[in-house]
Amino acid sequence: LTGAQDGSVRMFEWTRPQQLVCFRQAGNARVTRMYFNSQGNKCGVADGEGFLSIWQVNQTTSNPKPYLSWQCHSKTTSDFAFITSSSLVATSGQSNDNRNVCLWDTLVSSGNSLVHAFTCHDHGATVLQYAPKHQLLISGGRKGYICIFDIRQRQILYTFQAHESAVKALALDPSEDYFVTGSAE
Q1: Domain coordinates in residue numbering, the chain
Q2: pLDDT in tens, 85-135
Q3: C-alpha angle 45/31/158, rounded to 5°?
Q4: Which positions ≥6 away from 97 have C-beta within 8 Å?
Q5: Are 3 and 31 in contact (CB under 8 A)?
């Protein structure tokens, strides 16, 4: 799966030189993040205009429409994570009201899909990591802060400054004992 500054999203297969599917054409907002869900049957794309779009991967048409497309943040959606069996999605980004980390239910109508919004990260959240064993979300912000959220209780557990500049990467070890942050500095 490839995403570009021009907004295009294409899917390739290792043994074929040409694309299998073009999910988005050039001319859309820049792609900020994209992932497959754990089952591999859906892919999601976040973009610079605050949208998250999700497609079924087993499409037979060359330019399929997303089955879900939401504006999750008013400025940009920088990252997202599939939670559980992809029916719950977490997003990070920048919104005018500082609701910069959000939980969304993909099984309800778009008007009722926001499950919870966390007010955090002045100037926006840049990255997001899901810890399934502990049911935690870890987010990094533009000012170097890390926030840890309990999904079950829907509350912020910890906030601390890890860097002097924007957090650009988060990684979680498989046992969920440690996480690592990387910054713009």
Answers
A1: 1-181
A2: 778 999 999 999 999 999 999 998 878 899 999 999 989 999 999 999 999
A3: 70
A4: 74, 119
A5: yes
What amino acid is encoded at 139 in this protein?
S
pLDDT tens digits, one per residue of 3-58 = 999 999 999 999 988 988 999 999 999 999 999 999 999 999 999 999 999 999 98
Cα distances from 159 to residues 16, 17, 164, in angstroms, run 46, 46, 14
CATH number for the domain running over 1-181: 2.130.10.10
Instruction: Fill in the DSSP letter of residue 112.
Output: G
CA dist., res. 114 & res. 111, Å (int): 8
Which residues share a beta bridge with 138? Answer: 129, 148
